[in-house]
Amino acid sequence: MSLSEHKYQAIIVGAGHNGLATAFYLARAGLKTLVLERRDRVGGCAVTEEIDPENAPGCRVSTASYMASMLRPEVVRDMQLERHGLKMIAAEPGLQIALPDGRVLPWWNDDERTRDELRKYSRSDADRFFELDQDLKALARFIQPFFLEPPPDTEASGLAGLLEMIRVGRRFRGLNGRQLSELITFLTGSLEQFLDRYFESEEVKRLILANNLYGNHGGPRDPGSAMGLLFHLLSGGEDGKQGYAGHVMGGMGAITEAMAAACREAGVEIRTSAGVSSIDSVNGRVNGVTLNSGEVVEADRVVSNADPKRTFLKLVPQGDLDEDFRRQVRAIHMDGPAAKVNLVLNEEPRVNGMPADASPLQKMLFTLVPDFDQAQRCYNASQAGELEEDLWVDCVLASAVDPGLATPGHHVLTTFVQYLPYQPAQGDWDQHREWLGDRVIDIIGSYAPNVPGAVVGRDVITPLDLERRFGITEGNIFHGDIRLDQLFFMRPLPGWAHYSTPLEGLYLCGAGTHPGGGVTAAPGYNAAHVILKEL
């Protein structure tokens, strides 16, 4: 059968947000596109599901991904996601930490309101905080354009290489010497060293720490650990506001449901409960996929939203790729350090220090972040496979602003937990799952004493469960760690950072490609535009 006779011009493996974004742009350009999803629903890690159907039926939560931050405004507008039902409410405060001494420290969107909070701890830090915030936002604006375009092509030579140098150079036009120094510091230095240069108050440092290291490898004293500050100041939401964080009404699944509706409107065919067992090829060129059911579906090209290891080591037959390439794929650092613990409560958490007149938005989120010693010790322990007591627990009481997620008299609390080993040194996660759930509840109870007695349902999702449930290798939510040697033109591998692969007609569009993880839809956007440019 010739390529022109295939039923589909593109098959997307995986209906996560990046796969749906890719499908939309390909279909909008006229390609007959099919999305295949192994689970019984679209969304990947951005889904809304019941927490504990047996003990708390009808109570739903954003199971894995849980807050909207860097979702690209271009994608929101192109897919008309609001018309398809997406509604996001900006978090206010955008971040808030609960302190062990019974105080809370919010980071409001209003600068003067935040300044007043910070002055309670250090007047000089309050001023430096906003000087640094402006500097970081300026740096983030230089990086921002790289998000919606392929990374620098280091393999280009001749005229193409010259043009590539000019393209990249233009992005940093206007960057002064001090900003360049700061950028290098971010990429190579530790967060603690960086903050020590600016601040004296441990509470202020802790507030910034809480906005930095989510789901990433490295404690606050490790080289490169300051990098997260820039990523969290990139723009997001329909209006493209820098540092945007928001709650999605209906949970994160509302994003992917809206994307799926936009895809169907553009002509995309979406099939759920249709897991792919292999990506097929003939003579070095992709010609379709085989499903777990044994069904063969042919297509001109295949775009994998799975992570690089799952794509190249499990879906592509071993003999179809060079062994040296496969060895490089095996070396990609994954080893997810995070988990989720989702809870149903029969009363609202009463956090020590939370104002009595706190708004529902303020009650919605509170981070229980260790100090720098504890955070570094916890990370080091995880790297040795040990389970540390001082976990980092980020809490979102989604039902405070979205009561429709819970049944009357109930509240849903989702927590993001780190640092944890993917493979415990002793036993396995099936043995330690209940310990993790109990420990997280105990930690929350030390800040909100009424919570342990209010739990009526829970769902503990260990790093191993993230792999099993969502199909992400080693439970890494970013499809590969976010670190300097796995970013930009080295993501997923040097020489293969432009979404194409050694197998002709096979592309990647997931978080394992540039610019990385988070519910941004940037990898899917970029992959689709690279494919369309080649056509």
Verbal overview:
The protein is 33% helix and 17% strand. By secondary structure, the protein is an alpha+beta fold. It has a 5-stranded parallel beta sheet, covered by helices on one side. It has a 5-stranded antiparallel beta sheet with strand order 17-18-19-16-20. The protein has a 3-stranded antiparallel beta sheet with strand order 12-13-14, covered by helices on one side. Strand 1 (10-13), helix 1 and strand 2 form a beta-alpha-beta unit. Helix 1 packs parallel to helix 10, helix 1 packs parallel to helix 17 and helix 3 (111-119) packs across helix 4 (123-143).
- The assigned structural class equals alpha+beta
Binned, the helix content reads 25-40%
- Read across the widest sheet, the strand sequence of neighbours is 11-2-1-15-21
Could you tell me the strand content as a percent range? Answer: 15-25%
Shape by Cα distribution: globular
Number of helices: 17
Over all CA atoms, what is the radius of gyration? Answer: 23 Å
The N- to C-terminal Cα distance equals 20 Å
